Amino acid sequence: MEVSCEEKRALLSDMLVELQNCTRCPLHLSRTNVVLGDGNPCSEVMLVGEAPGRQEDLQGKPFVGKAGQLLDKMLASVGLSREHLYITNVLKCRPPNNRDPLPEELTSCKPFLIRQVRLLEPKVVLTLGRYSLWTFLSRGVKISQVRGKLFYAEFASKKLIVLPTFHPAFVLRNPKYEPIYKRDFQKLRELIDTLNLRLSQD
Ligand code: URA
């Protein structure tokens, strides 16, 4: 049975309340805000990053810092914006000093991503960075070998197309990769157009 956009929004709000009370891992002790996700829950395209950074923790929204600005620029270069996509992270709370997620944090938080995917049923997931890539494909896969390629995967008992790319923070640190990064977003655009994916709010 199809879940309406309104119901999806309501269920995500419930999930946010649940997460605000979540103590499954020690990250709850240092967080200011939980960051569940943002954008259009009715889109068939989901972007998944790693974990909230400082700005995201302060504002409760994903990708609102410098990495988010680059992400917005890449999206705009192919005629997309946040209203067209749903954006979330593998971890919903900020690791102190933006350190890499720990295995136990990934395990504790995974059920929430599973529930988001089951509820929103994206057809395409753009993974940003290796922790997101490893979550949807398998741990240890090298981004440099798979980025820009399409993978047919199953996650949360849903069949998805996974398009791996770099994390925007990596591209900010290594600007020579920006042209390749742009190509990955062009690939996303081609996929959206070829599959005629839904980007609208209703
Ligand atoms: N980096 C991420 O992976 N996610 C964010 O929301 C912000 C920075």
In words, what does this structure look like?
It is a single chain. The chain is α/β, with parallel strands linked by helices. It has one domain (5-195): Uracil-DNA Glycosylase, subunit E (3-Layer(aba) Sandwich). 45% of the residues lie in helices and 14% in strands. It contains 9 helices and 6 strands, in the order ααββααβαβααββαα. Strands 1-3-2-4-6-5 form a 6-stranded mixed beta sheet. β5 and β6 (158-165) form a beta hairpin. α1 runs antiparallel to α5. The longest helix is centred in the middle third of the chain and has 18 residues, at 103-120. Residues 49-53, 56, 62-63, 67, 89, 169 line the site of uracil.
Task: Kindly summarize this structure in a few lines.
The chain is of the alpha/beta class.
Give the topology.
Elements (H helix, E strand, L loop, with lengths): L4 H16 L6 H4 L7 E2 L5 E5 L4 H6 L6 H12 L8 E4 L13 H18 L3 E5 L1 H7 L6 H4 L4 E5 L2 E8 L2 H6 L4 H18 L7
Parallel strand pairs: 2-3, 2-4, 4-6
Antiparallel strand pairs: 1-3, 5-6
Helix pairs in contact: 1-5
The structure holds uracil.
